Sequence to fold (537 residues):
Amino acid sequence: MKVFKYGYLLAMALLVAGFASGCTATKSPQVTEPMEEVVSESQVPDDAEALEPEIIATPDEAEEHLSQTEQAVLNQRFGLLFDLEQHDSKDVELFFTFYTHKARKTMVRWLERSQPYLPHVRRVFTQYGLPQDLVLLPFVESGYNVRAYSWAGAGGMWQFMRGTGRLYGLQSDWWIDERRDPYKATDAAARHLRDLYDKFGDWYLALAAYNAGEGKISRALKQAKCETFFELTERNRKLSRRTRLKKETKQYVPKFIAISKVFQNLDTLGFKPVSWDMEEEVVPVKVPGGTDLLALAREGGMTWNEFHKYNPAFRRQVSPPNMEATAYLPVAKADTMMAYLADPDSRPYAGYSRYRIRSGDSWWRISNRYGVPINVLKSVNNTRSNTLRPGQYVMVPASGSSKAVTASASSSSSKTRAIASKRGNYVVRSGDTLWSISQSFGTTVNTLKRSNGLRSSSLKVGQKLYIPNSSSAATKQAVKDAGKVKTQMVNYKVRRGDNLTTISRKFGVKVADLRRWNSLNSRGTIYAGQRLKVYVQ
Fold:
């Protein structure tokens, strides 16, 4: 699923019509470039992780019977440090049973993953005067996974959409995605929840609005003529289809309550209690625009992967050139790394490649060679000019892999692409993206890129890709399991300028499937305002 950034030239308008907002390439006046491939600004980072199935699971009925102890826990109304009134309902019991039985191993994994973040989230929410229960909301949203992305593009452990994140100061672009910053995103989530509570005066309604949007809940309350969440769910069927709450929103609060009951009684339910002393001690520091993050990491004796675990918001090995960003340094290494930042002579450019312009080169060619958008290349090199001169040097930022980009990588990638094409065992189809292919085969986007010598995420229909170990039993099982993932039907409203190709790319599905799902023949047209069924995993 890709979201593209509008480019600079009107000449690219025809290309934009074929994509969901294409990033155009500014051409050198001496060279006429083909227009099939354009490096895009991806909304989803290469190391993104899809939401686990247990996040979006909607159990219809309890498959296990609760023990006497579990039933007693379910019936409790209050717990230590939790001041939201508990509401008994069938859905609460369904989710409580699900997370204590069928999804128990998943719950254990989430609890372990939350331990480095829980103390900080609790402090922030205490500072904002929010109920302690709300520190559990990331379990409902992402399983406390800072790298999680939904099919709709929500990101981070708080699952902010880009627009909402920006309203609360979270930058999200080719360089950085602060929705993945556990510290900044937590502060943004606290302010967002506080604003929602100020709007509705009820925490359950605030939670529902966090899931469905403030406007959606406001309209539903007005039409239902009620004031509480559970009254709203009871009257939901009487609402118009446009105003009616989705099943996900109706079950959001019961799921939250169920997880709260589990968390309050971990020991009683046989779970290992969480440890509140596993918080990472870090020092937040401001890094100037264009800081070489790989060199900064090496100065602290860290690999890129080690540095990136502390700083998952950075998408490149270079910080955004036009803004001061925040980096989190481990306490034990902070002094050395801060000294590097303070020294204006420390410029090894480990996170950059210095590329020498050759005859016939253009920004377009460099962009496609290294997988870096043209506007980013120009920003890094502090220029607006379209002209490049042979012998001139330009800086190219590394894309966040374990090694910096080097000029020799181009020839190596060409050899890899040639080998991959010969042994290719997958043919790219309409609507495919590296993200969707990686999910189908249980691998990662980075692995696909390395195995096929790809410098960008652009694909062509009919292109052959080599899927590593696709013949192995493990990969076959991964493909089989991927096919079992429950699909979710999206009722998509066609917008002005949409066509079946742009919609298929938006959701990572095939045009043929869109036609089949909506009974459209090969000549069938769509129009603005039309509702289309889209089934996504």
About this structure: The radius of gyration is 25 Å. The CA atoms of residues 146 and 182 lie 7 Å apart. The chain is about 40% helix and 10% strand. The first strand starts at residue 49 and ends at 50.
